[in-house]
Amino acid sequence: MKKWLLMTLLLVSGFANAASELGKDYVLMAKPQPVANPKKVEVIEFFSYTCIHCFHLDPLITAWEKKKPAYVDFRREQIVWQKPMEGFARLFATLNVTGYMEKLNAPVFDAVMQQKINLADPSVLNDWLKKQPGVNLAKFMQTYNSFGINSQVARASQITRAYNIEGTPTIVVNGRYALSPAAPERLIEVLNDVIAKAKAESNIK
Known about the structure:
- By secondary structure, this protein is of the alpha+beta class.
- The protein is built from eight helices and five strands.
- A five-stranded mixed sheet has the order 1-5-4-2-3, sandwiched between helices.
- Strand 4 and strand 5 form a beta hairpin.
- Helix 2 runs antiparallel to helix 4.
- The longest helix is centred in the C-terminal third of the chain and has 19 residues.
- The protein is globular.
């Protein structure tokens, strides 16, 4: 009985840590995209603040980001499929530029997904930000409405099309591999496997 139980546990463990497979856990991009720095493995998470799966993944990928290898470049991109999504791209870009990303990213997700607050609407966002401690509202909204942010919103729309993003979250490694949908924990496992593969292929130290 004990021997059978041990074998069962080993089999379950083996399946839980199974190597990631091309065609099952990740696929080749139809149109590979160039990376910003060929000396590093590039990882991009295409997400949306309106995506429940992104909401569930966010705590895990945020924790992963803090421990990722030095040879990995990671960034997020708020996708823009249509005009109404531009407000979220504008908000995301402003969080990055103003340095409020770490402070407000999780609260933004919670407000949109849990409280159903439309933070893509500037007036709604303005009222919501008034309630967030330690936020310079005037500076935030000045940046939000700036030409630089306009350019980033246009870029978000362009990169969504260039990478042919059809669902979120989509994680792309080295502009070549797109991870298939999976539970957040499994997605992180596959991500680590594909990063190792990309590192070996690129001869990155």
